[in-house]
Amino acid sequence: MTSKFVFSVDYNGKNYHKYVESNDNFQIGYHNATIYRPNCYSCMYAGPNRCGDLTIGDFTGLGRVASVDGNIAEMKYQGVSCVLCNSEKGQKVLAQIGDEKYLSIDSRPIEEALKFENQLASPSIPSTYRNRFVELYPEKGFDKACNVVFKKEKLKRPIIHAAKMCVKKVLGRR
Question: What share of the chain is helix, strand, coil (3-state, %, to 5)?
Answer without folding.
Answer: 45, 15, 40
